[in-house]
Every structure is written in C-alpha cells, then in structure tokens.
Please model this.
Amino acid sequence: MHPLDLHAACRWANSGLVARGYSLVSYFNHYGDTFKIRCLSMKHT
Model:
C-alpha cells in the first residue's frame, strides 16, 4: 500500500484546466473503486 495524494494526481492529470483557473476535486465512486479516481472541475468566476 502506498499513500496517494488524489488532489495532486487530479491537478497533474488536468494541468491545462488548472492553468485556466479551474479548481479540481477528486473522489472514488465507492470504497471498492480503488483504480477509478474521478476528478471534477469547477471554474472560478
């Protein structure tokens, strides 16, 4: 088991969105979804 910073992983995978001012949130759908990280993006106005 290795710790994983989900927020950093989402920022890295979506660096273009971050550069355009989006905030990213990461989550798993449920406990068993360890390989299906979801990233949501929200634009600041």
In short: The chain is about 30% helix and 30% strand. The first strand starts at residue 22 and ends at 28.
